[in-house]
Amino acid sequence: MDKAEFLRNIGVKTTKEIQSNPKIRQIVNYITENDLSFFSSDNYINEDKFLYFITNMKSVENVIEVLNNDAYLSNFNYDYKDLVKFFNIYDPKKINMIGGSMILTDKEYLQNATVEWTQNVLSKSELIIKLNKDRITFEENPYTPYDVEYIPAFEYNVRALAEAKKQGKLEEVIKKASNIMG
């Protein structure tokens, strides 16, 4: 795979500026050396936003993981700065960026929860955090991944964490979740 083919596959115009960026060579070399398959996308990615993304991402591996995920590519032109912020902290092989998950990049959140705990416990737990008026409780997800109604507990929990932040209870919720979830 050459640079132009890679850029066409992800929907980026093959400008001189982009092709001359050293990170493009690193990305293409990494894909080739590791014999990675890369799918083609029908999305259009703005060149300036793409340059911002590849320039500011710390890990070539994370760049490849994000660019090989159609869910991220479909909203790339809107989410590119959030993608950089989120995946410079979290490993895209271990955790997905979903709606509302930017709470996981919040300074207060990161002071009270480790990246490892977020990736290995919170994102995998089937316990749902419930914020009641005067207490915090945890419930088992009533559905399994095989049920039509199933929504991963992680989706509920990032919303609960965002609400806890608004209520000034984020530290308390994280501490309780750490004790109960592991």
Describe this entry's structure for a reader.
The protein is mainly alpha-helical and 182 residues long. It has helices at residues 3-10, 16-19, 22-33, 47-56, 60-67, 70-74, 76-87, 107-112, 115-122, 153-167, 170-181; strands at 127-131, 136-140. The protein has a two-stranded antiparallel ribbon. A hairpin with a 4-residue loop joins strand 1 and strand 2 (136-140). The mean pLDDT is 94.
Summary keywords:
5% strand; mainly alpha; 2 strands; 182 residues
Layout of helices and strands, plus pairs?
Elements: H1 3-10, H2 16-19, H3 22-33, H4 47-56, H5 60-67, H6 70-74, H7 76-87, H8 107-112, H9 115-122, E1 127-131, E2 136-140, H10 153-167, H11 170-181
Antiparallel strand pairs: 1-2
Helix pairs in contact: 3-5, 4-7, 10-11
Residues in helix, %: 40-55%
Q: Supply the number of helical segments.
A: 11
Instruction: Give the tally of β-strands.
Output: 2
Strand content: 5-15%
Strand order of the largest sheet: 1-2
Provide the residue-averaged pLDDT. 94
Largest sheet: 2 strands, antiparallel
Q: How far apart are the termini?
A: 44 Å
Overall SS class: mainly alpha
Short description:
The protein is mostly helical and 182 residues long. The chain is built from eleven helices and two strands, in the order H-H-H-H-H-H-H-H-H-E-E-H-H. Helix content is 55%, strand content 5%.
